[in-house]
Design goal:
The chain is α/β, with parallel strands linked by helices and 276 residues long. The chain has ten helices and twelve strands. The strands form three sheets. Strands 6-11-10-9-8-7 form a six-stranded parallel beta sheet. A four-stranded antiparallel beta sheet has the order 3-5-1-12, covered by helices on one side. Strands 2-4 form a two-stranded antiparallel ribbon. Helix 8 links the parallel strand 8 and strand 9. The protein is elongated and about 70 Å long.
Length: 276
C-alpha cells in the first residue's frame, strides 16, 4: 500500500509536534538566524529505509536544501553519508531527532527483514509482516518491510477477515466463526482463519477459507498439515518465528511465513547528524 502525500504530511507533522510541542526551547534561546550545513552519516552496516521521510521532516520545518546521497534499499557501511542538509539552523536542529528516529527505526526493520528473506531464498516460501507494529508507525514500518524484500499482511482490521483464537472462543468454535464470516463478508473480502491444531484444520478445510494460518505449530505438525492440504489452498505459518528457526518452517507446501519479529524486535541502526 503506497503512502499518500496527505497521510505522509499529517503523520510527519504529528511526529514533529510530539517533539516540539510549543516550541524548541534550545533553538529559540540559542540561535539567531544562523545558516548551517550538516550531514547524516551511518555508524554501522545496514539496509537503508526512510530517507525520503527524513527529507520531508526538514522541509516541513523551514528553508532548507536537502540532498540525497543514498537511497532506500541500498546497503551501507560505517561512515557513509546519507543526506546533506543546508539552510536555516533552527529547521535542521529541530528536525534532527525526528528524522534520525525514522531512518534508524525503518532501516533496522529493513535490515532484519532482509536477513529472513535471504534465509528463505530457494524455498519458495514468502515472508509476511504482521500488525505487531509501533502505534502511529504502522504504514512506515510496513514500508520498511517491503524495502527489506518482505510482503505486507493486513494493514489493519479493515482490509480482511482474520478469525483468531479469541474470535473462535467468543462464538463457540472455528466452524461457527467461519460460517458466519462466509455468510456476512462481501464477495471480495478475503477470509483468513487461524488454526491451532490439526483437528481444527480438518474442520476448517471442510468449510473453506482463503488462507489457513497454522499458528504455533511445530515443524512436524506443519508437515502433517501439508499432507492434507487441498489443491489451491493457501497455508501461512506463524507464531514465534525468527532468524534462528525460520528455516525449520520453510517446508514445501507452505506458501507464507508471517513474523512479528521483523517489526517488534528489530534494533534501530546507529546513525548521527553532524554539523560541518
Amino acid at each position: 500500500m503506497p503512502i499518500s502525500e496527505l497521510y505522509l504530511k499529517k503523520s510527519l507533522e504529528n511526529f514533529i509536534l510530539e517533539d516540539v510541542n510549543f516550541g524548541d526551547l534550545t533553538c529559540d534561546t540559542v540561535l539567531s538566524g544562523e545558516r548551517i550545513r550538516a550531514v547524516i552519516i551511518t555508524k554501522q552496516k545496514a539496509l537503508l529505509a526512510g530517507i525520503d521521510f527524513a527529507m520531508e521532516v526538514f522541509k516541513l520545518l523551514g528553508e532548507v536544501e536537502v540532498i540525497k546521497k543514498l537511497k532506500d534499499g541500498q546497503e551501507v557501511f560505517e561512515n557513509e553519508t546519507i543526506l546533506e542538509i543546508e539552510g536555516d539552523a533552527k529547521a535542521i536542529l529541530t528536525g534532527e531527532r525526528v528524522a534520525l528516529n525514522l531512518i534508524q527505526r525503518l532501516s533496522g526493520i529493513a535490515t532484519l527483514t532482509k536477513k529472513l528473506v535471504k534465509a528463505l531464498e530457494g524455498s519458495g516460501v514468502k515472508l509476511l509482516d504482521t500488525r505487531k507494529t509501533t502505534p502511529g508507525l504502522r504504514v512506515f514500518e510496513k514500508y520498511a518491510v517491503r524495502v527489506g524484500g518482505g510482503l505486507n499482511h493486513r494493514f489493519g482490521l479493515f482490509d480482511a477477515v482474520m478469525i483468531k483464537d479469541n474470535h473462535k472462543r467468543a462464538v463457540g468454535g472455528v466452524e461457527i466463526a467461519l460460517k458466519r464470516a462466509k455468510e456476512r463478508a462481501g464477495p471480495f473480502v478475503k477470509i483468513i482463519v487461524e488454526i491451532e491444531n490439526l483437528e481444527e484444520l480438518e474442520l476448517a478445510l471442510k468449510i473453506g477459507a482463503d488462507v489457513y494460518t497454522l499458528d504455533n505449530f511445530s515443524p512436524e505438525d506443519v508437515k502433517r498439515a501439508v499432507e492434507i492440504k487441498p489443491e489451491g489452498a493457501i497455508y501461512e505459518v506463524s507464531g514465534g518465528i525468527n532468524l534462528e528457526n525460520v528455516l525449520d518452517y520453510a517446508i514445501k507446501g507452505v506458501d507464507y511465513i508471517s513474523s512479528g519479529y521483523i517489526t517488534h524486535s528489530a534494533k534501530a541502526i546507529d546513525m548521527s547528524l553532524r554539523v560541518i
